[in-house]
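Hello forum,

I keep getting stuck at the same step: I have a sequence, I want structure tokens, and every attempt I make locally crashes halfway through. Rather than fight my setup again tonight, could one of you with a working pipeline run this one for me? It's a single chain of 865 residues.
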Amino acid sequence: MSENAGIAGIHDVTVVGGGVIGASWAALFLARGLSVTVSDPQPGIDEAVLGHLAEAAPSLRALGLDTSELTARLGFEPDLATAVRAADLVQENGPERLAAKHAMWRTTEENAPADALFATSTSGIPATEIATALKDPGRLVVGHPFNPSHLMPLVEVVPGEHTSYETVERARAFYRALGKRPQVLRKEVPGFVANRLQSALFRECVHLVGEGVVTMQELDDIVTSSLGQRWAVVGPFRSFHLGGGEGGLPHFMSHLGIGMERRWADMAQEQVAFDEPTRRLLTEQAQDFGGTVGELAAERDRRQIAVMRALGDRFDSCPGPAPHRMPRPCLHPTPPHPTPTPPRHGIPTPQRLPPPMSADELTDRVQKALADPVTHDDGFDTHEALRDVLASAGLCPADSGGKITFIGSDPVVPSIMRLGAVPALGMTAKSVALAALWRHRGGEGQDITMDLRKAPHRLCPFYDKKWELLGGYPGGTPADPANPLGFDFYQARDGRWVMPLNPYPKIKNGVYKLLRTWPEKQAVADAVAQWNAADLEQAGDEAGVVMPMLRTTEEFLREAAYEHIAEGPLIKIEKIGDSAPEPLAGAAAQPLSGVRALGMGHIIAGAGVGRDLAQHGADVLNIWRPGELEHDSTYNTANVGVRSTFIDPYGPEGRAKIHTLLRDADVFYANRRPGYLAKIGLSAEEAAAVHPGIIHLSISLAGESGPWTHRVGFDQTAGALSGIMLMEGADGVAARPTSTPTLPYISVVNDYVLSWLATTGAIAALMRRAVDGGSYRVTLNLTRIATWILSLGVFDRDYAHEVALDPDPDSPHAYLDPDTFTADTPCGHYQGVTDQVIMSRTPGRFRDVLLPRGSSAPVWLPRYS
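Reply #2:
Ran it on my machine without issues. Output:
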């Protein structure tokens, strides 16, 4: 046979059984360039298979496959022991008799290579039963196609009780690379899924024809003119979801479900069997089909291809969920760590995902929120909001493998924002991603519970100076305790406001130079009052300092910068380079065990990513420049669990150290001034050149493009630009450009929210890399997060202040004390705020809670230590 490039590590396939299914498989394998040996002792099998190849060739060509050398790599070997000796894959299509399959698989296991993939096309016998014939039952999986297998996309991948995770992933990756749509079933069930659905429908078809309601031809016309066309684009559940109108599937079940239940009850009374009268009736009516079976099949395939073309279902284009949910080739040696052999229920199942929110939809939601501020309990759907958030990372709530529960409802604190739901959504999204990764590595699904009434404490753990303590005292800013460029608003000459939040030496001195003033609050106020706000903002922009003019949200939506901010997803994940897949070992202690994260995070948004990763098993090492300042208040909150070291990134020695660390890292994260990473050779593209396969995560104020892309800023800067600070003031949603602004009740808008969503994106990228390979860029920005917060709805200020902080601890609007933890650390006795989200199987724990800044050597800890 001729050489072939292979698919997902598969080069040589032995097809056991040359009947209709086996020959159809052979046709597809050959058309995809694989070498195929058909093993079937039946006389004349070679002629039968060649005849089927000739029949299949037109369909394969129509799907864009080359059939000019279809038989060049085809061979026949009746002796099974000989046929499987060089096989990378054995696809068995033998008789549906357990004894026969046992005999075939015993012979196969005894003679096939030890690393060959074993798949059975059985239409109903569980893999668990077939695998009892094998010494290693973990090698066998069901790979059940939908007939004709060379044409229809579906392959049901069904693991048995002892099927290994590696076997399932290899099978799923191979079928995906073959152009199929592999669907891993969560449980074994007789007949699997497609056949059960087909059987249920056909049972009713036989009943309706038998009762004389319609003829066979009429029934076929009804199906092809209704359900057939509809189900080609949406499945049954989505179809009924749409049938429920604005209320979706819940509305359908509540208002129309009773009619469905009546039909079910009626169907349950039906006695349907292929008795003699039924057989005779169906046989007679089948004569009306006309033409031979071959002619009818050819016409069916021609029409099927037309439908597939219309839907884009070609072998060179298989649309579907996010890449890691339906893997492309991922056959790659497992690292020399624990071998992944998880239970079958630990396999995440591909899900149909809603598309990420478009810019127009985002704008429309914000405008509707402003036009109709919430003045009552509006029944906000936290679960629907969670689905939207996860969709931007290619995930969905079902990836957790368990139940997700939200407790309480906004307003919890007096704010125009949903400051209970917003942090709850961020923490829950991160938890779903962690649960998905845990299942990806073989763990079980888990329940996630989030109490909105505690969530604001985790969004800003230090604002009330009582929950986050070191040595019994809250962290502060001892290097600059009276900075007038903190959380203060200053009014300009034209009555508008600016917020010069500049808490670090370089930018703080830049403001004093710009304003020609000194570090005293009244002096700053007098200097600002000499400027029009827009002119001062522009001057601050040119000086590289933080000087945003406060805007109303309506003004923000009209900015040219807004178009760039709104056009991207909440969590943007881009593949920027190719590399080999890097599977994560199974049997891990935590979801991120063995993962290494190198950081240049500071303040909260970036540093918080390190905390999130460390809490769930990653070795996180953050780089600080020698002499760089960090305030105690932010270090003590965002660097929990993180090791850190001092390295000068500007000199050759420092860069060499960073590159050495980067080559062994899985994730790099940073929230530095725009252009800084490129200046020191650590842009996403440069990092990927040093380490193909890196996950590069960067955080900014206003995104990667547009007129604000070079601006610096913080959490509150995004709130000032987006209109939040003005609406938090006394005028609420009716705020004007000159209205007096106010900080949110908990002082912040979204710093930690961005950290949680960034962590979600990093985990999603790790799962993609595990099966697809590649380097990935993950980007988020504070102003996009602020816009998303507004899109969730805004409260009438008076209503929020009246309802929030309910003293009744059982009230949905109570503001409950947070859950805390304590630890004795090298820095002193520490009390911190937990994530408030409860994960039933992987709650998270820190290796080291708080270490002195820069106290760790610039080396990695052993993986899986």
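The two ends are 48 Å apart (CA to CA). If your local run keeps crashing, start a new thread with the error log.
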